[in-house]
């Protein structure tokens, strides 16, 4: 038997180790791994970010950020989060301002102790194409984008993301989001059920915060909210509900044909509600941050009011740093700066009028648990409309009340109110929360999120 010199053996072992190390480093998952974000505190969980191409021909790529669960990620579900707009960033709003693990503070990041990755593996998607770092090399892709295109792209994204992260392929999956995600979330879930012959998606539920579900009901509940909170007078309330309601005004606005009567009514409403009141949180007495402009299309007359001229927007500053973009494996294509809401996307805004509450009904009938929750200080998509829509859907589906309308608790304080139908369709409010509930009431939002994932009733006592 020939003996091999130990030096030769050592070299062979080293080369073999180098080979496997190179293979690991070049794997899609490892390429997307974030070593460390600039200014980030030490954490024990892994983070990933990068691009998934959803259309090779036109080079259309969606950007994602993925934060694994803080503890034992292998046992935790996967949660996809989508922000609304349409055209606003899940990275800048959801991940870095609401329920992600960090928030920018000056030059550094600080931990969010109520991050949702305490309970789940959180996947944030900048969708549709043209939002945030997501891009297309063919700029025609930014025109005439609609709900169908967005849902299809999001489906392709998930299919390809699972190829990159096969360990999550059979994991319990929940889809969540807020605002215009009342369109994104159920439409994506519906497609997943239609194209799930190979059991690629283990969909366990959807949750939507202050969502657009039915154009007229959601928008017209604004008048009652304004009036009940003392923002408009009795006489203006009467005008706002009989002469020209809000859905009629928005309908006319996006068709470029605002009638004189609607113009007069809206001017009266605007004078009384005041530009110094944040419509996304009527109790807030500070400047409105541009981070929270994701519902600007739902409030066309107040577009300018959603931009913060008083306070430095730390999230925008942070994500426009070159070292941060390098750490995130992100790049700017066709734009000079990352923006909270897209300036290049031409979305089909009339899709706003397509009701998605009927799709929610189909999901419930298919056995998919649904949670609709409302920050109760939001006048843009008020709880009044959402509660009415959920109750109406329960009646339509013949679902009996399984949890009567009651308070729920976070700690020793009332966290909000809830009602459940048939143990599958739930409505809840988050007390004191704005349109962006996880930002304004993070602890209460986390309690709600945890109960939703576990399929347990919200705390009834403290």
From TrEMBL:
SUPFAM superfamilies the record matches: alpha/beta-Hydrolases
Keyword Acetylation: no
Signal peptide: 1-24
BP GO annotations: proteolysis
Pfam families associated with the record: Peptidase_S10
Intracellular or extracellular location(s): Secreted
Family listed: Belongs to the peptidase S10 family.
Protein name: Carboxypeptidase
Species, as recorded: Carpinus fangiana
Lineage of source species: Eukaryota, Viridiplantae, Streptophyta, Embryophyta, Tracheophyta
């Amino acid at each position: 038997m020939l003996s091999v010199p130990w030096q030769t053996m050592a070299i062979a072992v080293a080369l073999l180790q180098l080979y496997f190390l190179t293979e690991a480093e070049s794997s899609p998952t490892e390429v997307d791994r974030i070593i460390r974000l600039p200014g980030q505190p030490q954490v024990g969980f892994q983070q990933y970010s990068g691009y998934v191409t959803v259309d090779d021909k036109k080079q259309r790529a969606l950007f994602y950020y993925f934060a694994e669960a803080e503890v034992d990620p292998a046992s935790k579900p996967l949660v996809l989060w989508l922000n609304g707009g349409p055209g606003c960033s899940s990275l800048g709003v959801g991940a870095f301002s609401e329920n992600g693990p960090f928030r920018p503070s000056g030059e550094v990041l600080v931990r969010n102790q109520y991050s949702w990755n305490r309970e789940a593996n959180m996947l944030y998607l900048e969708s549709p194409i043209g939002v945030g770092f997501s891009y297309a090399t063919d700029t025609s892709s930014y025109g005439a984008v609609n709900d169908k295109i967005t849902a299809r792209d999001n489906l392709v994204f998930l299919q390809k993301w699972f190829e990159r992260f096969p360990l999550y392929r059979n994991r319990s999956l929940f889809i969540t989001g807020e605002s215009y995600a009342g369109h994104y979330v159920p439409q994506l879930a519906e497609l997943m059920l239609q194209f799930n012959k190979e059991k690629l998606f283990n969909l366990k539920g959807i949750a939507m915060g202050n969502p657009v579900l039915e154009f007229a009901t959601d928008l017209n509940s604004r008048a009652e909210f304004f009036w009940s909170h003392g923002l408009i007078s009795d006489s203006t309330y009467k005008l706002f509900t009989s002469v020209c309601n809000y859905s009629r005004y928005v309908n006319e606005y996006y068709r470029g044909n605002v009638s004189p009567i609607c113009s007069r009514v809206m001017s009266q409403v605007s004078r009384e509600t005041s530009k110094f009141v944040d419509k996304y949180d009527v109790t807030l007495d500070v400047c409105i941050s541009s981070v929270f402009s994701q519902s600007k299309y739902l409030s066309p007359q107040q577009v300018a009011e959603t931009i913060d001229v008083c306070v430095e927007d730390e999230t925008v500053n942070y994500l426009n740093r070159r070292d941060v973009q390098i750490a995130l494996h992100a790049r700017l294509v066709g734009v000079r700066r990352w923006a909270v809401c897209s300036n290049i996307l031409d979305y089909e805004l009339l899709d706003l009028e397509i009701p998605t509450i009927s799709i929610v009904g189909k999901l419930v009938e298919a056995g998919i648990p649904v949670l609709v929750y409302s920050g109760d200080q939001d006048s843009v998509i008020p709880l009044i409309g959402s509660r009415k829509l959920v109750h109406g859907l329960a009646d339509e589906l013949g679902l009996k009340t399984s949890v009567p309308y009651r308070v729920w608790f976070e700690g020793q304080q009332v966290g909000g109110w809830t009602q459940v139908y048939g143990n599958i369709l739930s409505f809840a409010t988050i007390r004191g929360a704005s349109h962006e509930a996880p930002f304004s009431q993070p602890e209460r939002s986390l309690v709600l999120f945890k109960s939703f994932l576990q399929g347990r009733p919200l705390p009834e006592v403290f």
